[in-house]
Amino acid sequence: MALRLGQLGSGPWWRAVRGDYAQLRAPSPRSASACVCRLPGTAGTQPRRGLGHGSSAGGGSRLGTGLAAALAGMAGLAAAVLGHVQRAEMVPKSSGARSPSPGRLEEDGDELARRCSTFMSSPVTELRELGRRPDDMKTKMELMIMETQAQVCRALAQVDGVADFSVDRWERKEGGGITCVLQDGRVFEKAGVNISVVHGNLSEEAANQMRSRGKALKKKDGKLPFTAMGISSVIHPKNPYAPTMHFNYRYFEVEEADGKMHWWFGGGCDLTPTYLNREDAVHFHRTLKEACDQHGPDIYPKFKKWCDDYFFIAHRGERRGIGGIFFDDLDSPSKEEAFRFVKTCAEAVVPSYVPIVKKHCDDSYTPQDKLWQQLRRGRYVEFNLVYDRGTKFGLFTPGSRIESILMSLPLTARWEYMHSPPENSKEAEILEVLRHPKDWVH
């Protein structure tokens, strides 16, 4: 199968959540490792139109499996999932990319500084390096995930109204990252939004994983250079009627001995409610579908199914949540078109989720409701520690940043022996949906 993406941009649903970030108080470049930021309000932006594409299909996973594991170990990207047996493809399509003229270099430098001043921290890569390669996909992706981090953090801090995000910047010779965490707020028990930008040589374990899946990469002097970057977030509200949400978008490059460069994107966004609210489920999935539909009508159905299949807790016979979208190894038709698709998906995070949290954060609930939330949180932990290969690989990789890897876990959870909800209860209702995924948009 094939998946075709065309040109896209910010959809109209994004107007209400993007705006001027000049008021963001961000640390100065190369600041100390931790600080606290308070984030102000939002405004609007300009929408653009999308495109279409054809059907898509799965095949054997290629490079993403092993490198995602290496990324998780090195950079603490807990959601850099591995081991998928599918890859996303797109039918080749011409690209209108062009390099900026020399006369615009100073203007572009001013624009880069303006963009970076709105982030939660200075970019991991030096500004001079980013300015030297404005058309390189590594630059575009790093700036996009930094901007997404700031947008999401500000939106969540606005909803919470009390707690601030701590900003923990970490660096090492292979790159670094920015971990932003809001904990014990009025609305959110724990909300983390992480950035990682790393490079180096693939570990032997990662290379072996690739070989085990039929991909033999040619090493140069026994090494496989790679670059990887991504944004990963998990948000756990306090109120049982406000759902947990996870999203992750990432980009990888690996260079073979003959100089051949392999690249791909991956990611997704999914919702995990404690109690089923059909209106919320429709809103979440419809927003993601609108984002995907800017690139073609066949993308959402495929990636929705992929999400349902991946977030499956086999020993429980149920999904972790009500799904969303998920894809990996997206490497066609061009970097630019794949990047535009990923950017659209990232921009859909806030409008898909924040209205749901606002709607339910002050709902009344009983101790029994809270107990059920804690039990469902236990299922979340089970999936992340038992099935998420990125998390597991990171935990067993020497030198990995454990705090960032385990950021995805809730602050509190519970396990009860042989707990089973009554028939026809609202607890049983959500279990039925988790065992039998539904189509929420048709």
Automatic annotation (TrEMBL):
Q: What is its main location?
A: mitochondrion
Alphabetic keyword roster: Heme biosynthesis, Oxidoreductase, Porphyrin biosynthesis
For region Disordered, the annotated ranges are: 90-111
Q: In which pathway does it act?
A: Porphyrin-containing compound metabolism; protoporphyrin-IX biosynthesis; protoporphyrinogen-IX from coproporphyrinogen-III (O2 route): step 1/1
Spell out the family assignment given in the record's similarity comment: Belongs to the aerobic coproporphyrinogen-III oxidase family.
Q: How does it assemble?
A: Homodimer.
Q: What does this protein do?
A: Involved in the heme biosynthesis. Catalyzes the aerobic oxidative decarboxylation of propionate groups of rings A and B of coproporphyrinogen-III to yield the vinyl groups in protoporphyrinogen-IX.
User: What is the name of this protein?
Assistant: Oxygen-dependent coproporphyrinogen-III oxidase, mitochondrial
Q: Which gene encodes it?
A: Cpox
